[in-house]
Amino acid sequence: MPMSPVHLLGAGPVGCLAAILLKQRGFEPIIHERRPDSRREGAYGGRSINLALSNRGFLALAAAGLEAEIQSVGLPMPGRLVHDRQGHVQFQAYGKEGQAIYSVSRAGLNYKLMDLAESQGVPIHFESRCTDVLLAQNQLLLEHQGKIRHESYHVLLGTDGAYSALRNAMQKTDRFDYSQSYLPHGYKELHIPPSSAGEFAMDPDGLHIWPRGQYMMIALPNPDRSFTCTLFQPFEADPERGVDQGLENLRSDEEILRFFERDFQDAVPLMPTLLDDFRKNTTSSLVTVRCSPWNYGPSCILGDAAHAIVPFYGQGLNCGLEDVRILMELVDQAGLHPKSNQEAWANVLETFATTRKPDGDAIAQLALDNFIEMRDKVADPRFVFQKKLEARMQEQFSGQWTPLYTQVTFEPLTPYHQAYRNGQMQQALMDRIIDRIHESLPGEEHDNVDLIDPIIQQELHASGQT
Amino acid sequence: MPMSPVHLLGAGPVGCLAAILLKQRGFEPIIHERRPDSRREGAYGGRSINLALSNRGFLALAAAGLEAEIQSVGLPMPGRLVHDRQGHVQFQAYGKEGQAIYSVSRAGLNYKLMDLAESQGVPIHFESRCTDVLLAQNQLLLEHQGKIRHESYHVLLGTDGAYSALRNAMQKTDRFDYSQSYLPHGYKELHIPPSSAGEFAMDPDGLHIWPRGQYMMIALPNPDRSFTCTLFQPFEADPERGVDQGLENLRSDEEILRFFERDFQDAVPLMPTLLDDFRKNTTSSLVTVRCSPWNYGPSCILGDAAHAIVPFYGQGLNCGLEDVRILMELVDQAGLHPKSNQEAWANVLETFATTRKPDGDAIAQLALDNFIEMRDKVADPRFVFQKKLEARMQEQFSGQWTPLYTQVTFEPLTPYHQAYRNGQMQQALMDRIIDRIHESLPGEEHDNVDLIDPIIQQELHASGQT
Predict the structure, then answer these.
(1) Average pLDDT for residues B316-328, to the nearest whole number?
(2) Residues of B whose CB is below 8 A from A180
(3) Interface A-B: count of C-beta contacts within 8 A
């Protein structure tokens, strides 16, 4: 029996990692990418779009031997640096000493994965756009230089992102549940260059947030000592909810400057190209895509194609890379090999799709919830107190309390849906602990561990956590 | 200035009614229908698919002068005829004396509307399929006999149903919220012919329901004295929820008969072609489509294209026809005329889309809720008691209590979203009244109006309804 290639749509990080790990196992992956080869166009040298990579992403990359290399070029962010309107900055650790998420260039990561895939013999066909998939016939239609050809597939993996062509085809099949849901917010990328001395213009050891209730700005450090800033702001003004400026209203130089000087005062002097960037950079929207089932016979979507989420937990790509890790575990468990038939593949893909779907749903919801946390709660004294308590509980009652953020970000073996459930229970418990502390202790004793530890211990015990 | 035609996609009842009412106002509507002219194919003479038409539909049809004619060929159904497993039948009135919903042939209604549209000079182009809409250019692509032509539109109304081509184009625009969500149930149409004496085989004065918890069968009378039955059943078995047979498991004659004889015993002798029908008729799925916004410049979707709902409130077409009535009110209010420009149209369509959307959402949810009522609650003693109380309350405390079903079905001037909100409040009140009656009165006094009226009156008063 001849070997049957595994076709992949999309040469993004998820598609490349899947191809590399399949190749390692002796399969014949082929990638079709609709865009030209971006490595040739020097986009890498340009202004970077960065993302936060954390333990789930690193664990998946480890299988390709890339963990250490990517971590070494990333910038560790051990916590949030929260800016108030007066420019005061407060540090909130993400986890324990030594734990951090990493600011990584999206393009740089992608190029490394493309290079590695090609060096291992995976063909990447650029400008090869999938225009449709004939699911019942196991055929894909590929357009290259204006010509469309039909290609039969043995196995097809849709790693083609939020606007997936494979998912589009699936959406036309009966009983395919699908939703695309937009936030009322858009985002715009802005820029803080290195200082005139060539240094970082702000502290590079963290993720900067300017939380402003219904909206916020964030900034992540880049290796070239610049920061990429992102403003998340409703498209339309909504005065009842404290949004007097929508992205659509900010038109004149005066309006833009007045808005930034009021809300992001300490950042404005660091942004010499603010007005230019604000005008030149497009405003993008924020979509959550949920669908089911992810599989159809020997085809399956993964990554953003299956679960495009908003960026507020920094988990979008981590989740996509984890999809690949989990799929490979199932491939190995089922003993799939290069000559396995379509039915064997279909079974594995079905298992992947059904077992992984609850994790996709959970991280989608967590990402939406975290927007509220980032733009609003991080500035709330009760939230700040909760973070302190969580750190204390993790230290003093280790094993009985792992904060939700830690489970999601630093514990890749806890499935997202499990973390989500734990988080729901923990928040109820935490609310009881904080209420009791507030009711029974005067403000000056809220840091007194001799007084708060017994309360924590009683509530942990009552909730069955001990 | 020349007149600018209004293009409509789809010659279903909603598209035809909209065209007729636009023509009345001097506009130049043109309908494009992807199917051949079904009137020529004698589908009308075949087995009918019927639907329940009620006051919202009739009010909208009245504007085309068709109310009396359609009502005269429909069969009034003043209530539900609920069959238990032993074949006992219980009548539950839908409303007051004289109120009824009507079983109407879908094809017959559609043909009348097509005939009327054409007789008033509205061209209907059959086999003219919209393959895409270029929204930004106000162009539609129409395929006729294998050739595709571009047609510019001044105004475009998408009355092209649950799989709307216009909505498909809208779905690709930024920030278009969309969901398609399927029930785990499918449905299959079955048939009860007239008796050998040429009479109705069952009581024709009602909508027959065989409620069986997670599933049900219904039957609507036809003018030819047959009944069209519909079985609503989960695709897959789900023993934990009392579904030991999924539609997919019913394969052999034995399995099908055993299932029907256990659950629909009294119907089986009336269904001589049961096995044949069960095999021959396709199994269809049940989708709810929600989306927003419904408009884009001078184009707008209405009817199922904007809000495909499940059929359990009998409101799908009523809601679509009501869309047309409401749109025409807005056209008149804005003083639109045949030479109005696209901006004037865009404003009216925007108003329609934003004000009508909450009604589409409300009836979608009501239809889903009513499935549970029909398949499960109608057999519940508490529900039956509530229906009795509601009748009493409507009679005795008229003006203070209008049952939800009555608001939705018989009061077309109450918007769906208002009915939905009222229904939520009323159910809470009704639960309190029933609880008090159960707690304070022995069972034999539950019909004693001298004892229950004071309880009702107190609770109505306490809730601010008096």
Answers:
(1) 98
(2) 171, 176-179
(3) 33
